[in-house]
Amino acid sequence: MAPILIGPDTVALLYLTWPSRSMVPPDEHRERVQRFASGFGLILERELLYDRFRSQRKTMRATMGAMERIMSSLDTGVDLVRLAGRSHADTVSAIDLPLNELSSSWDKSLTKRERDVMRLLVLGHDNPAIAAQLAVTPSTVKTHVRHAMRKLGAVNRTELIARYQGVADTSGSSGRRVQR
């Protein structure tokens, strides 16, 4: 008789009767049985671990698939909101501030899209962040900023923001007179 071990636990007993006409001495026969039981225990342990691994891998794949479906549905929802027939007044900034609450006396001079860009610029967003928020390319944002700078008579983004918020002198630091 020999125990079949998996780790410290005995999971089975191997019992073999002694053959009546065996030429193998009893001690050697006992050692062979114990080696067989030990090897069988290692094989069984490995198979059980592999079975557990397959089960965990299946669970992980199902979980990752569910996460992928959730993430792709969120991405699709955001893209649809940004791209499909939304009203600019309903646009919300990254800090959950409705963009139509930010306004300036310059708004009449700017196009609707330039106003959207300016409102995000005032909140401190850079071109890529503004582009992502408005679902346009960064070069389009750059063009809107350049047009707003020309219309407000600003020479840089800081002056543009200051003029838009009514902080800067509207006569223009560059000597250009700005008309509203």
TrEMBL record:
InterPro entries: Sig_transdc_resp-reg_C-effctor, Tscrpt_reg_LuxR_C, WH-like_DNA-bd_sf
Cross-referenced SMART domains: HTH_LUXR (SM00421)
Keyword Transcription in record: yes
Alphabetical UniProt keywords: DNA-binding, Transcription, Transcription regulation
Gene3D superfamilies in alphabetical order: Winged helix-like DNA-binding domain superfamily/Winged helix DNA-binding domain (1.10.10.10)
PANTHER family: DNA-BINDING TRANSCRIPTIONAL ACTIVATOR DEVR_DOSR
Protein name in UniProt: LuxR C-terminal-related transcriptional regulator
Organism of this sequence: Citricoccus parietis
